[in-house]
Amino acid sequence: MDSSRIENGHQRSYGTGGIDSDLPAKNPIHLANSPLHEIVDAAKIKEKNDLNSLGTLPELSVDEHKWNKLSLGIGYMLAMGVCGVVLVALGSSLEDLAENIGLEATDIGTVFIARGCGAIFGAIVSAKIYRWFPGNLVMTVALALIILLLLYLPFNKSYVLLHVYFLFLGLGTAVTDTGCQIMTRKVHGKKAGPWLGANTVAFGISGALVPLIAIVTGSLVLQYYILSAIITGVTIFIFLGPNPDKLGISGQPAGAPRNNEPRKKVPHYNVEIMLGCMVFCLIGGKVTSTAYLSTYVDDTGVIDTSNESALVLVLWIAITIGRLAGVYDQRFLTNVTLPVHLSIFLIGGFLSMLLVLWFPNSGPVLWIGVAFYGLFNGPCVGYCYDLNNRITLPSEKSMAIVMFGLNFGASLVPYLNSVIWTATGSPKTLIVTIFLSMFIPLPLLHMVKYVSYDETYNPLLRKGAKYDAVPQNDA
């Protein structure tokens, strides 16, 4: 059913908003003695028959419906975690992969461009393939590709093949993470905010596992084998899990017409482009810090080189804590308070790096700066997803545009960092890059409302309406 916003007594339909309203009330006793109950029951039967005629609503109980939604939500969280595993593994093991082919980490920055080409292509085609084919099947194939590549990557001795591996890993992760967001938004609709945030939490937790496994195993090959085994379990869970068709979303893309309703046309994608630029910076700084913090320690000697993996681990533990706090916070946010909270996180993030720039030779300051950067950066991408979910019509293209920015940033920013670092010979390049990754999104955030087509959010379009003040704590 279409979700609705009720503002100032007016009801506004905003695309496909999940399936909760398709379910009968658990205890409709309060209608039993009402003269309206027969009309209500007749309307429910007609609606159910209409949906069954479309082949979108099988006969399921309320508990089965909720269980399927929960299982799918967990599956997409785990799949998003795989993307975190791959992202952090490629970054944190960059020095080892470079050593396998006789080079330094800063000499192979072009692998991020290769990954970016695959990721961008994956983000572009995802909007189509998730329409053409069952979402879980597409995700299963992408995850299987990732497993095969991770099993062979630690044995690579070729500079060219290393780029090929990164290219296809970029493709596989882009199809997976874009699919996670598309399918999560389809299943949960306007209540998807906390679930989208939970996806980013899974991403962060999985990312934190990678340096921990690296510290425990001390072997690149064993590390990649363990990660491959974990991803295999996730792939099996999704492949054998509930079919999204049972939730009435198959064949009903976001914003698709239902019965005789006209399809809601998206006026433009300006908001998605702006948010895509924001996540471009946010994820770019995260990938760059993961990939080059070890090299920064080697070049500066500000802390003992034996603590390099521990520093990356602290970064991702802080990111995970930030994301967990962000998901809880999202449950109570409105369209007014969400940008305010996100602004605070962005300011905290760039001030953390500014602290490191002020005291470049202090080991304790580096630990503190990295930890607080991770803490403040952690929730930011999830907040961008949530804002996109709240103020735009849901569609595959909408999410694909934002994910395009994310995948492009994860590739271009670390590459540019390596180029500038090599040209200047200054390790400070890394800290400046991370600083800018948190500073640039701040003005973009406050420009978003002026390009929105939602008249309840854009002050230039608003005609006496107020912001949506409905929090997401019932998701």
State the shape.
Answer: globular
Number of helical stretches of at least 4 residues: 16
* DSSP helix fraction: 55-70%
Beta-sheet strand percentage? under 5%
- CATH superfamily descriptor: MFS general substrate transporter like domains
β-strand number = 2
CATH architecture title: Up-down Bundle
Tags for this model:
475 residues, mainly alpha, Growth Hormone, Chain: A, two-stranded antiparallel sheet, globular, disordered N terminus
What this model shows, in words?
The chain has 475 residues and is mostly helical. It has a single domain (64-249, 268-451), classed as Growth Hormone, Chain: A (Up-down Bundle), CATH 1.20.1250.20. Helix content is 69%, strand content 3%. The protein contains 16 helices and 2 strands. The protein has helices spanning 37-53, 62-92, 94-100, 110-132, 135-152, 159-188, 193-217, 220-240, 270-300, 308-330, 337-358, 363-377, 380-391, 396-424, 428-439, 441-451, and strands at residues 2-7, 10-16. The chain has a two-stranded antiparallel ribbon with strand order 1-2. A hairpin with a 2-residue loop joins strand 1 and strand 2. Helix 11 runs antiparallel to helix 12, helix 11 (337-358) packs antiparallel against helix 13 (380-391) and helix 11 (337-358) runs antiparallel to helix 15 (428-439). The longest helix has 31 residues, at 62-92. The radius of gyration is 23 Å and the shape is globular. Residues 1-36, 46-58, 250-263 and 464-475 have low confidence and may be disordered.
